[in-house]
Amino acid sequence: LSADFAYLARDIQAISTADYVHVDVMDGMFVSNISIGVPVVKSLRKATDMFLDVHLMIEKPVRYARRFCDAGADLVTVHAEADTPENITAAIAEIKAAGKMAAVALKPATAAEAVLPWLDTLDMVLVMTVEPGFGGQKFMADMLPKIETIRAWITERGLSCALECDGGIDANTAPLVKAAGCDVLVAGSAVFGRVDRAAAVSSIRNA
Ligand code: ZN
Predict the structure, then answer these.
(1) Within its chain, how far is the Cα of 81 from the centroid?
(2) Which one of the listed residues 11, 24, 74, 170 is annotated catalytic?
(3) What is the mean pLDDT of residues 166-181?
(4) Which of 17, 99, 107, 187 places its Cα 20 to 30 Å from the Cα of 138?
(5) Residue 63 contacts by C-beta under 8 Å, 6 or more apart in sequence?
(6) 96-112: average pLDDT
(7) pLDDT score of 121
(8) pLDDT level of residue 31 (50, 70, 90 thresholds)
(9) Which residues are registered as beta bridge partners of 27?
(10) What pTM does this model have?
(11) How many A from CA of 152 to the centre of ligand 1?
């Protein structure tokens, strides 16, 4: 979301030292903004071999989960709040059937417990550390207990599920979320707001 959309291939090349490319998809309904969709993911797939981590901030993601997989996503994240539990289960099944990794995201107001119906089947859980919808927001430190809770469940159950946080992550907040149990950190402004993107990535990785 923080890249220059007119120069996505160039901007992805500039973050080639990162582990994933995080793609924020917004529909103007689940969140008020509209960002990018299936055709852009398809083009990104042609432009890079990097892991595409596609974060769907859209209503009823079951409608589009398969299409984002076919477009080249490696992992697709759906929001627990975006549909009925039955339809979220169906979206996860679509992603798995396409041979891709599946994650469920939780908005700040959503309790950790909301992920429990799917935790055993997920490749990743995403805890939003800002309100989803736009970049450049301040990190919400009150999300740290939620991260700790979900990390404890993953450990207790012996799951290989990753734990991602998204929003307000920089070299100052990275140590907080790592200590709470996150192992996948999404950074937007903290990377693209700096001239040396590789240095920004390593400052977060080594924070
Ligand atoms: Zn995101």
Answers:
(1) 15
(2) 24
(3) 97
(4) 17
(5) none
(6) 98
(7) 97
(8) very high
(9) 34
(10) 0.97
(11) 23
Q: In what order do the strands lie in the sheet with 51-57?
A: 20-26, 51-57, 75-79, 101-106, 124-128, 162-166, 184-186
* Burial status of residue 93 (CB atoms within 10 A of its CB: 0-12, 13-18, 19 or more): middle
Mean pLDDT for 38-43 is 98
Answer yes or no: 19 catalytic. no
Cα 188 to Cα 206: distance, rounded to the nearest angstrom = 17
User: Which pair of tokens denotes residue 146?
Assistant: 């939620």
24 is annotated as an active-site residue: yes
| Contacts for 93-97: CB closer than 8 Å, 24+ residues apart | 94/62, 94/65, 94/66, 94/69, 95/65, 95/66, 95/69, 96/121, 97/66
Q: Rounded to the nearest 10 degrees, how much is the dihedral formed by the CA atoms of 132, 135, 141, 144?
A: 50
